[in-house]
Design brief:
The structure holds 2 protein chains of 2 kinds.
Chain A lengths: L1 H25 L7 H10 L4 H8 L4 H17 L24 H15 L8 H9 L5 H8 L4 H13 L2
Chain B lengths: L12 H28 L4 H8 L3 H8 L12
Classes of the chains: A mainly alpha, B mainly alpha.
């Protein structure tokens, strides 16, 4: 059983990282950050990330919009018109999967949550809890921008993960 | 005698860092857009590197097409 769970976790991690990388490149970022990990968690077939975020009234569209809005607001605050920068080709796909350090930290925290008693397979809700627990960064700002009570989101996500 | 200015308690570090992140990703996007246009217009990597203040080799390594795609001479 332990071996089966480990194999499933490896598959989940790979799916998460590939999806986060696609999301980052589509959004014009070089490397996936925690915000892309959060979006990737929504794609996982276990459905727990969507369930946890749904409990606080957030879906993919709101999350993507909030990420865009926090970047745009930051540029606007120093007089840069976000619409004036035009579009750019996506970053070239790296030869090996990489992510930002905060994304790696969130990833490790999600794994730690899954391995903490009660030990369970890694699911999307663990990622949601791990990202919501972070202290700063784009994902945190996007959740705050949406008015999400992050402590509540962590609690809800852990509850959803425990019953998955 | 000059004194260092006192830290500004009104500054919100989170907002400042959010601007840094937004500017950094905008700069990266501008860089990619510029390189794509330069290569279309026949620029060499040496010229792109000079324009960006780095070596041609560094420019190619950082901004060159991914594996399986080749565009532009490195000279």
């Amino acid at each position: 059983m332990r071996r089966a769970r480990a194999l499933r976790d490896i598959s989940t991690m790979r799916t998460l990282m590939e999806s986060a990388e696609r999301s980052a490149r589509a959004g014009g970022d070089d490397l996936p950050g925690p915000e892309h990990l959060l979006l990737a968690a929504l794609d996982l077939p276990d459905g727990t990330a969507a369930a946890a975020l749904g409990e606080v009234g957030i879906g993919r569209r709101e999350l993507e919009g909030a990420v865009r809005e926090v970047h745009d607001a930051a540029l606007t605050s120093i007089g840069v018109d976000p619409s004036s920068t035009g579009s750019a080709p996506p970053a070239p796909r790296p030869k090996v999967m990489r992510s930002t350090a905060p994304a790696q930290e969130a990833f490790n925290a999600a794994l730690h949550l899954a391995r903490t008693k009660p030990r369970s397979a890694l699911v999307g809700a663990h990622v949601v809890a791990a990202v919501a627990e972070q202290q700063a960064g784009t994902a945190v700002r996007a959740l705050d921008h949406l008015g999400v009570d992050r402590d509540r989101l962590v609690a809800v996500a852990l509850e959803v993960a425990a019953t998955a | 005698m000059d004194h260092d200015p006192a830290p500004d308690q009104d500054v919100d570090p989170a907002a400042v860092f959010a601007r840094v992140v937004a500017l950094r990703r905008t700069a990266a996007q501008q860089e990619r857009a510029g390189v794509a246009a330069a290569l279309e217009q026949g620029w060499t990597w040496a010229r792109i590197g000079q324009a960006l203040g780095i070596s041609g080799q560094a420019a190619h390594k950082k901004l060159g097409p991914g594996p399986g795609r080749t565009r532009g001479g490195r000279g």
